[in-house]
Amino acid sequence: MQKSINILGSTGSIGASTLKIVRGSGGAFSVNLLLAGRNLEKLKEQIQECHPHFVSIYDSDKVPDLRRFLKKNSPGTEFLPFDTALKLDCDIAVSAIVGTAGLLPTIHAIRHAKRVALANKESLVAGGDLIRQECAETGTEIIPVDSEHNAIHQCLRAGKPKEIESLILTASGGPFFGLTHEQLQSVTVNEALNHPTWSMGSKVTIDSATLMNKGLEVIEAHFLFQLPYSKIRVKVHPQSVVHSMVEFRDGSILAQIGIADMQLPIQYALYYPGRPENQAFRFPLEGSFSLDFHDPDRVTFRCLDLAYRCGEAGAAERIVLNGANEVAVRAFLAGEISFTGIPSLIEHMLNRIDVPHPHTVEEVVELDNRVRKQTETEVRSGLF
Ligand SMILES: NC(=O)c1ccc[n+]([C@@H]2O[C@H](COP(=O)([O-])OP(=O)(O)OC[C@H]3O[C@@H](n4cnc5c(N)ncnc54)[C@H](OP(=O)(O)O)[C@@H]3O)[C@@H](O)[C@H]2O)c1
Question: What 3-state class would DSSP assign to 168?
């Protein structure tokens, strides 16, 4: 039976890859909702391509133009206000908005979809306890899209939770693997955006370069697989061939190998527990290739340790880490702070902010907003 899909963040890198999988599915999936942030031109292209049942956009200034476009080009597509669109029932919701802006949409997706294919890691970092609670109450399953967690999800099909010794997240190391702190001080935005193995949105690409992406993924793994942080390890694997591994208590380590293309984990998350035939995603086994694994340099790339520290500390610290990081990455991309200013600014915010433990989504959002405002003020100080 055809499954209906809501794509939250359709105009982004994960959203566009999801549409490719849907297009190639031979009718196994239909697009119920396309939901964008601000990129109306991209949304228009996507509407003309797949004529979804519903469409929505976060930026309310773009709504009149979108409505006119629908009337002329896709009269069968209904416009929905953003808040209404988040509450639309479907079989699978793909949560692919970037940043904490994805938290509320993810919570609504858990309430209204049978499955959430989760790419938005920041929602688990900021609201992991709330998301777990929503899943327990609704029975909605989360299938991770993030390639590392998707790999672990696949490896775990070979064993029981109590048989797990540790999870091993692999990291490409980003474009600056092996550089010293002094060398990092002068790296440019273009150099940081030049990821060696993956093509992704700008925020996650910078997070990969600082190793914050791996830090956020450690917290994501903690909430997805419910293991203590001491059992979640990181290895730098520059080839990005092994997407992650699970070590079992008998000493066996299982790894998932595949091409470095997010369509592969997205396809898995949509079809799970099945596996469709797909010749396009064959891993090139011809010839020889090598697999290297290194310990991360946690002194030079401090973001990883900051994430472990905040993960252990609790919800408030995770929200500060995540919110300050988002502002710091935006400031770096805008040329307002240096690359090494990113961890310094986050650490400064962690030391400075005295925050209560949030218990509800509203409290998480309020704290996140407060952290962002204060971090923006620090950016303007010019010290980072
Ligand atoms: N890209 C990857 O390969 C990859 C891999 C693993 C995990 N992830 C995770 O997946 C998520 C998405 O990453 P991405 O690389 O696809 O990001 P991206 O290319 O920057 O796309 C982000 C999407 O979020 C939308 N958006 C931003 N702010 C919004 C708001 N306030 N309300 C509604 N929509 C909003 C954007 O809309 P507009 O463009 O229309 O403004 C866009 O559709 C991130 O959490 C990232 O960490 C990505």
Answer: strand
